[in-house]
Amino acid sequence: GLRIHEYLYFQVLSPGDIRYIFTATPAKDFGGVFNTRYDQIHLVPADPPEACGELNNGVFIQDQIALVERGGCSFLSKTHVIQEHGGRAVIIADNAYDNDSFYIEMIQDSPRRTADIPALFLLGRDGYMIRRSLEQHGLPWAIISIPVNVTSIPTYEMMQPPWTFW
């Protein structure tokens, strides 16, 4: 995968008001890695947001990436739910909406279980802003590019979220 200091980057392409490059951290000891770069793939907010059981919008998760909210069950359990619905990866946003700097280390909860799809942790503020933009525009998902190799982008061209310090 395209990791720098254990960060992975993705860019929201649509909606335009959140067309930024976001930083996420991969799960520490479970989940797969990105062997493919997706230039345009849907980032679908899970319904219910915590994705601890059956999803109401599971059909939209298939072959896409799910945006899930922290809480209710383990990170590994959420990853399993998305994998069972055919998701390519899961991005788990912190449920502390004001968190704009503290990354949580996602670890497995059982040595007998694992997951094959990539699982990433996203800051709560970033997840909140993505979901809020989708709600404001009445959109069922965002279109993203993942992973993004930020080493090839000049610093002055990197569109970073204005609410996040890099």
TrEMBL record:
<comment type="function">
    <text>Plays a role in the modulation of physical activity and adiposity.</text>
</comment>
<dbReference type="GO" id="GO:0005576">
    <property type="term" value="C:extracellular region"/>
</dbReference>
<dbReference type="InterPro" id="IPR003137">
    <property type="entry name" value="PA_domain"/>
</dbReference>
<dbReference type="InterPro" id="IPR046450">
    <property type="entry name" value="PA_dom_sf"/>
</dbReference>
<protein>
    <recommendedName>
        <fullName>Protease-associated domain-containing protein 1</fullName>
    </recommendedName>
</protein>
<dbReference type="Pfam" id="PF02225">
    <property type="entry name" value="PA"/>
</dbReference>
<keyword id="KW-0964">Secreted</keyword>
<keyword id="KW-0732">Signal</keyword>
<dbReference type="InterPro" id="IPR037323">
    <property type="entry name" value="PRADC1-like_PA"/>
</dbReference>
<feature type="domain" description="PA">
    <location>
        <begin position="43"/>
        <end position="127"/>
    </location>
</feature>
<keyword id="KW-0325">Glycoprotein</keyword>
